[in-house]
Specification:
The chain is mainly β and 269 residues long. The chain is built from 1 helix and 16 strands. Strands 1, 2, 4, 5 and 6 form a 5-stranded antiparallel beta sheet that branches. Strands 9, 10, 12, 13 and 14 form a 5-stranded antiparallel beta sheet that branches. The chain is elongated and about 110 Å long. 24% of the residues are buried.
Length: 269
């Protein structure tokens, strides 16, 4: 009996000691609050080209804009992106003031388009463009960087094709592009072997007649636009190139050196 009394006394003492000790406090588990959903949603979902020239592209855009967003929205584009936007590009946005583009889910069949125009002085190669949604105050609401490889140019000599060939004379058809928005009259001529080393024994009749010049836009060999070159020296001359140029009354705006091997001669056989 005495032994039981001692054991009970020890247990009570231990409980008193433990009751007085500072036990670690267990913090209640806080519920994880879900992140608030954005009040409005803006998304560029894709683009589809409908017009492509060396200096102009028109593309349809598929997108979503929350119908409840209170401000008018517009869709524009920067090349190659907003952070490095080239000043040589301008665009006509989708959406006209004051209403902007239609909101909600829009598809390519809705035919909502952006027009992009290049006005640089030389060629420019891009691999991307950033299509963006912005509101009437200019605030960016969403954007998407899209792969888009293109070499942009306002002028391009795309090839020449001989129509008539004699030892002292060649008539060339020319395939080319000239920006239709470029106002001055343009002409197409040539230098043999090139401008820097032109041979004074050649004379040329350019494509295009004063004052109108050549037709602008994309022109093909089938359009039968031509220039010619005539050789007048007694000593034969062998060329390996010809430099074809687009020029105005103010000077040359574009040139292309093309491989062209020929021995020119005025000799009569």
């Amino acid at each position: 009996m005495k032994r039981i009394t001692v054991i009970l006394a020890l247990l009570l003492a231990g409980a008193w000691v433990l009751g007085g000790a500072d036990l670690p406090k267990v913090k209640p588990v806080q519920p994880v609050k879900p992140k608030p959903k954005p009040l409005y949603r803006f998304k560029i979902q894709g683009i589809k080209r409908i017009v492509t020239t060396p200096c102009r592209v028109v593309f349809q855009v598929q997108y979503y804009i929350s119908p409840t967003y209170p401000k008018a929205c517009f869709i524009g584009v920067n090349v190659p992106d907003r952070a490095h936007a080239s000043s040589a590009f301008g665009y006509k946005p989708a959406g006209r003031r004051p209403d902007g583009v239609p909101k909600g889910q829009k598809h390519f069949v809705d035919d909502i388009t952006v027009e992009l125009k290049y006005s640089g002085s030389g060629a420019f190669t891009s691999s991307t463009m950033e299509v963006k949604i912005y509101d009437i105050d200019g605030a960016l609401k969403g954007s998407e960087i899209i792969r888009w490889g293109q070499t942009w140019a306002r002028f391009d000599i795309q090839g020449i094709k001989r129509v008539t060939t004699r030892p002292e004379y060649v008539k060339f058809q020319v395939q080319y592009f000239i920006d239709p928005g470029f106002a001055p009259a343009c002409y197409i001529g040539a230098y043999i072997p090139d401008r820097a080393h032109q041979n004074a024994s050649f004379s040329y009749k350019p494509a295009g007649r004063v004052p109108a010049g050549v037709p602008k836009g994309q022109k093909h060999f089938a359009d039968n636009i031509w220039f010619d070159a005539a050789y007048s020296a007694a000593v034969p001359f062998t060329s390996s190139t010809i430099e074809v140029v687009i020029y105005t009354s103010s000077g040359i705006v574009h040139s292309e050196v093309i491989r062209w091997g020929q021995t020119w001669s005025t000799a009569v056989y």
